[in-house]
Amino acid sequence: MRTAYPPIHPYREQQLSVDDLHTLHIEECGNPNGVPVLFVHGGPGAGFTTADRCFFDPEFYRIILFDQRGAGRSTPHAELSRNSTDLLVADIEAIRCELGVERWLLFGGSWGSTLSLVYAETHPERVLGLILRGIFLCRPEDVSWFYQHGCSRVFPDAWLEFIAHIPDAERHDLLTAFHRRLIGSNEVERLSAARAWSTWEGKCATLDPSPALVERFANAHTALSLARIEAHYFINDSFLKPNQILRDAHRLKDIPGVIVHGRYDMVCPVDQAFALHEAWPTARLQIIRDAGHASGEAGILDALIHATDEFRGLLGRGA
């Protein structure tokens, strides 16, 4: 079974101002003359980690990572103003132009799969291929499963901790109740709600419990951006038209793709991967029988490394 490539350090870091409010943190690793691959992180609002550099052969790939608006080391932190899906797609294009990339491979999981798909459907001529994990279509039923009714029946203990922050009278619409607190002026209540929101996600993300992942999600800096930005997107239908990703999937027909999804993914149930594959049948769908949602689970990590190596062979021959 494959494991991640060894830790590496960036050879370049920069800040890119995309408007008069938002500045994005960008870093590049690996081979400066290699095939460009863009790592698209999840959330929205999670930011990328140093481990995210290690899905790719650093001798072959020019590995590009960036923190989306309001996330990670991008500024202002946890900012909701001028933060929407179409602007994130425009940001990716701005990064491509800034770095002088003609076409690139996109690698994204969870919300990162959402944003990668929307970008590829908007700019298919710029995409060499897609490696996607934990497909999240951002339909109302997908959001409701995790934040209202569905996952609560699989993790009832963690669910009780999650909803404890909301009075009974407001629990019929938890997304609205949490959003109200996450954008409120009470700093203590805002952080408490953020930690409850993010911890719930961390506890449900893996088949086997991962205290390290839960701890990362509970960190104040990560929790605040993750919870605020996710709630902001979800209460606005992720700034997508109804069923937009599947409706526009025909635009992916000439793009090679690999879809990796855990059979027991409780954050983004596996039916979303099947729906995407039905709309994009030329992609290869790989269901990992003993995994949940997180990219670090052994079976998912193995499949992702195999996918980047597979594209290394494909793109190397093309080059």
Quick summary of this structure?
Helix content is 40%, strand content 16%. The chain is α/β, with parallel strands linked by helices and 319 residues long.
**Low-pLDDT ranges:** none
Classify the secondary structure makeup into a structural class. Answer: alpha/beta
CATH topology of the largest domain: Rossmann fold
Give the helix tally: 11
Classified by CATH, the class of the largest domain is Alpha Beta
Number of beta-strand segments = 8
- Our estimate of the beta-strand percent is 15-25%
CATH architecture of the largest domain: 3-Layer(aba) Sandwich
- Provide the number of structural domains: 2
Mean pLDDT: 97
Helix and strand pattern: EEEEHEHEHHHHHHHEHEH
Strands in their spatial order, largest beta sheet: 1-2-4-3-5-6-7-8
**Which percent range fits the helix content?**
40-55%
